[in-house]
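Thread: quick sanity check before group meeting

JM: Hey all, I'm pulling together slides for Thursday and realized we never actually wrote out the predicted structure for the chain we discussed last week. Dropping the sequence here so it's in one place. If anyone has concerns about the input, flag it before I start.
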Amino acid sequence: MSAANLADAVRFWARWQPEGEAIVFGDRTVTWAELHETTSRLAQGLLERGVVPGDRIGMLSGNCVEYLELTIAGYKVGTVLVPLNVRLTPSELRYIIEHSGCRAVVADAALADLGTAALDALGTDVMRVGLAPGFGVGFDDLRSADTRDPDTPVTSDDIAYLCYTSGTTGAPKGAMLSHGNVLAMAHHRILADDLVSSSRVYLPFPLSFTGGLVSMWAPTYLGGATLVLDPAVDPLRTLQVIERQRITNFSAVPVIWDMLVQHPDFARYDLSSLKIIGSGGAAVPASLLERLQAAGLPMSQGYGLTEGAGMNTWLRAADAQRKLGSCGRPLMHTRVRTVDPESTTLVDVAPGEVGELIISGPEIMVGYWNNPQASAETLVDGWLRTGDLARIDDEGYVFIVDRSKDMLISGGLNVYPAEIEAVIAAVPGVAECAVIGVPDERWGETPLALVGAVPGVTLDPEVIAAACREVLADYKRPRRIVIRDTPLPRGMSGKVLKRELRAQYAAG
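JM (edit): ok, ran it. Output follows.
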C-alpha cells in the first residue's frame, strides 16, 4: 500500500510554482497557490458537513473551475467522484445516483432542474450542492474558513472515481479507478505527450466524460502544466484559443479535427505553438492525416477505455503514416495480448491473427462497483478483457479491427446497442429489434434500429423514436428506424447475426 494520492500534485506545485497558472477559464486565471488554498477550504467544508472518506459525490455540471476544485477537494478528503453525464435523462441519472449511493450531488445552474428531477424521483436523502443559488447548499457556503490542508489518510489503493459505462446487458457499470490507477496513466501520458510544467493544454470537451476528466486533465494536473478550459468545442473558437493562448497540446476525436481543417479560416490562424496533437475514439482517415501533416501538425493517436483509465496505447506521430490504422504500442508498464474471444480462459491466438485485445498494467481498474460477476468476467488473471478485436503486428503495434461487444462510437462517444434495444423492446407491438452502427461521414458511426413487429401490428417509427427520446441521451438515439418485414437473421443459438446486418446496411 502506498500513501501516494492525487492530492499530492496540487500540494507539490503550490510549493514549486505557486504563481504558475494552473487553470485558465475565459478571463479567469487560477494559480497553483490559489488552487491549493481553495481546495483545502472546500475539503474542510465537506468534512464539516459530515462527508467522510469513501463517500460518493456526483458531479452534474458543465465545464467550470469549480468542477476541478471540488474534484481536488475530494482527493484531499478521500471521497469518490462520480462524474454524471450531463446529456443523460433524469431516469438515466437516477439509476447511477442510486446505484453508486451518492452522499451528495453537485449541480450547476444550467443543470439544476435536471438534477432536481432525478433526485426528487429517487426520494432519498442526498445532500445537494449548487454551483449557483437554487440547488441546496451554495458553493460559496460550502467553503470553510479553515484553510488547513486536511490530513485525511488517502492511499493509492483508495478509489478516486466511479466512471459509469454501459455494458452489453444495457445496465451501466461503475468502473472503480483508484488513485494509483489514475496516477499510473497520468505518468504514462506525460511521457507520451512530452508534458512539462510549461505546457499549455486545451480542453473544450466535457469533464463529465472519462476522456476529459481523467485521460486529458489528470496528466495536465499531475505534470504541473496549465489547463486552458472551455465550456464546449467550437471550431472557430478553438482556432482562436490555440493562437491566443499559445496552446502546446491538444487532443480531439477525428470528427473535431475534420471540422477544424475544413473551417474556411483554418489557414489564417497561427497554430505553430502546437507541439503534440492527438486523437482517439476512432481511426484517423488517411486524407485527414495528410491534411494535418501538410499544415505542420503531426498527429499522434491513442487507444484507451474507461476500465483502463482512458489511455493504454499510443502511436507516435512519426509512425502515423508507416502504421496507418494502428493505435500504437502499449504505454510504459502496460502489456497487451490477443486471445481467443470465445474462450473463458486466456488462450493466445497465433501472432498476427485477430483476437480479443486484453491489457494488463497499473492503470487497469480495480473492478466494477457492486458487480462482482461483471468484474470476474472482465478481469481475468490480472488482465482486462476489452471486448475489442485486434491484431498485433511483429513490431508490437496494435490494430483494432472490430468490437466484439457490439459497441459503436459516435462522435467519440461510446454507444451500447443493448441499452437502446431494451428501450425499443418495451414499445407495444415490437417483436424483435437490433441496433447496429452504420457509417456516418461526420460522426464516424450512428445507431440504426432494425425493428420487427408482432404479427398483425403496424408499428409507427415515430412512436419508437419518442420512446427513445424519453429515456435516452440524444447521442444514443437511433438516427434511423427501419421497420422490417422479414425476421432478423439469427444463428443456431438464436442470437441475432449483427455482422450480417452490418454488411446489409453498411451503405446506410
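AS: nice. The first strand starts at residue 21 and ends at 25. The chain has three domains: 7-231, 276-403, 408-505.
JM: adding both to the slides.
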